[in-house]
């Protein structure tokens, strides 16, 4: 049966067109503790076709890489906890993993945290509203500085709702995090 490329989801086209995935070699590296190989297996299981699609296995591989400070594995594991995919739904666990990735400079994680804090500031969830705005500002500013799509607009929306003192504090926190990353 011949299938059209139009019938294949975009994410499968991207990864199928990449260099051929050597499952045995990657598995051997992952088993030896290589975090890049562990992440690759997590990705392969998380978006795989047929028998390769296994969200529980994806989460297990992401966790192994995440525990070795692999930021994309941390982000993906956090997103799995946020959605309850392959792991139990657990927002606290999700935020913990996403925060670890954000603190390492991952723009996607920074954007995700910024949006979470922005929502908390609007809905009055968990943190005090001013604290949530400052944290949203910080994370969205950092993501925007890396050109992450949608972060500049979200940062601007948050800024419009802040006092001058809150903006100054948000800038201080962002600079402190960047200085820590440079060390």
Report on the structure:
The protein has 183 residues and is mainly α. The chain folds into two domains: 5-103, Tetratricopeptide repeat domain (Serine Threonine Protein Phosphatase 5, Tetratricopeptide repeat), CATH 1.25.40; 107-182, no CATH class. It is built from ten helices and no strands. The protein has helices at residues 10-17, 23-31, 35-47, 55-66, 71-83, 91-103, 107-123, 129-145, 151-160, 164-182. The longest helix is centred in the C-terminal third of the chain and has 19 residues, at 164-182. It is elongated, with a radius of gyration of 19 Å. Mean pLDDT is 87; it is low at 1-5.
Helix residue percentage:
over 70%
Helix/strand order, N-terminal first: HHHHHHHHHH
Q: In this structure, how is the largest beta sheet organized? A: none
Q: Count of helical segments? A: 10
How would you sum up the global shape?
A: elongated
Mean pLDDT equals: 87
The poorly predicted ranges are 1-5
Total DSSP E strands: 0
Q: What's the CATH first level of the largest domain?
A: Mainly Alpha
- Share in β-strands: under 5%
CATH topology description of the largest domain: Serine Threonine Protein Phosphatase 5, Tetratricopeptide repeat
> What gap, in angstroms, lies between the N and C termini?
55 Å
Task: Please give the radius of gyration in angstroms.
Answer: 19 Å
Number of domain units: 2
CATH superfamily caption of the largest domain: Tetratricopeptide repeat domain
Structural class: mainly alpha
CATH architecture group name of the largest domain:
Alpha Horseshoe
């Amino acid at each position: 049966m011949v299938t059209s490329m139009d019938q294949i989801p975009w994410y499968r086209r991207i990864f199928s067109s990449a260099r051929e995935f050597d499952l045995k070699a990657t598995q051997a590296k992952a088993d030896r503790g290589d975090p890049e190989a562990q992440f690759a297996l997590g990705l392969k299981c998380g978006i795989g076709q047929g028998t390769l699609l296994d969200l529980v296995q994806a989460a297990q591989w992401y966790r192994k890489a995440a525990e070795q400070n692999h930021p994309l594995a941390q982000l993906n594991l956090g997103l799995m906890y946020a959605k309850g995919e392959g792991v139990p739904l657990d927002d606290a666990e999700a935020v913990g993993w996403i925060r670890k990735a954000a603190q390492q400079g991952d723009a996607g994680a920074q954007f995700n945290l910024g949006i979470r804090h922005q929502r908390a500031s609007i809905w009055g969830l968990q943190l005090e509203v001013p604290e949530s705005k400052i944290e949203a500002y910080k994370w969205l500013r950092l993501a925007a500085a890396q050109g992450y799509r949608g972060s500049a607009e979200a940062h601007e929306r948050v800024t419009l709702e802040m006092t001058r003192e809150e903006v100054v504090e948000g800038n201080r926190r962002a600079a402190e995090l960047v200085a820590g990353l440079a060390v």
